[in-house]
Amino acid sequence: MKNWFITCLTGGVLALSCALAAAAPPEKAVGESALGALDGFLADAPLEPGAEVLGMVGFFGQPEPVQWLILTSHPETPEQLRESIYARGRLLAERKFRPLSGQDLPHLPLKRAVLKIDSEAAFRAVEELAHRQKRAFDSAHFQLRVRDLGSEPVWMLHLLNRAQVSIGVVYLSATTGEILRETWKSPAPAADPGGTKISSR
Q1: How confident is the model at residue 103, as a pLDDT?
Q2: Are 180 and 171 within 8 A, CB to CB?
Q3: Residue 198 falls inside a structural domain
Q4: How many beta carbons lie within 10 A of that of residue 160, not counting itself?
């Protein structure tokens, strides 16, 4: 899964950086919900017959990213994928590319009807989990995909501290909101005898 984040960061975002030059700085921009962006994308750029949405990623959500990268495929050109950037209610840019051998890119379709948990709800669920685990994070990278045939869609949130260093990854169902798995980079801090609260923000 991490490979797709690397692909998007070094490929899609950099390749389309000119189209995003006018975007507001993260601290001033308003976040966009994943499902709102997906619905807007499907309305503004209807998929050709047979085409499928495979996945979505967004970066530095607080609680939501300011833009989403949406990956789509078409059965007539299985060797080529399309990556689109959707933000502020419109399609900003897109590119087509050929995946490299061995890349762990999404390949199973996301079905809109079973996507019930939006990005902010996913962030808040992880925020509560982090509070219980006495972990502190500032923002999150989001990925939405179906990992295995017959499986439910899953949110994967990479949690970052203020220095933008990853502190852990949490997986939760995009259908039910259930936490499926959590992985933390270091042991949880020792309990504070004074009862100091540790915020996830």
Answers
A1: 83
A2: yes
A3: no
A4: 20
Q: Assign 123 to helix, strand or coil.
A: helix
**Band of pLDDT at residue 190, cut at 50, 70 and 90:** low
Residue bearing the bigger pLDDT, 179 or 16:
179
CA distances to 99, 173, 183, 194, 195 from 170, in Å: 26, 10, 6, 28, 26
Q: Considering the domain boundaries, does residue 191 fall inside one?
A: no
* 21 located within any domain: yes
* Predicted pLDDT at 39: 97
Of 33, 57, 8, nearest to 156 by C-alpha is 57
Contact 16, 95 (CB under 8 A): yes
Q: How far apart are CA 18 and CA 103, in angstroms?
A: 26
Among 114, 196, 131, which residue's Cα sits nearest to residue 170?
Answer: 131
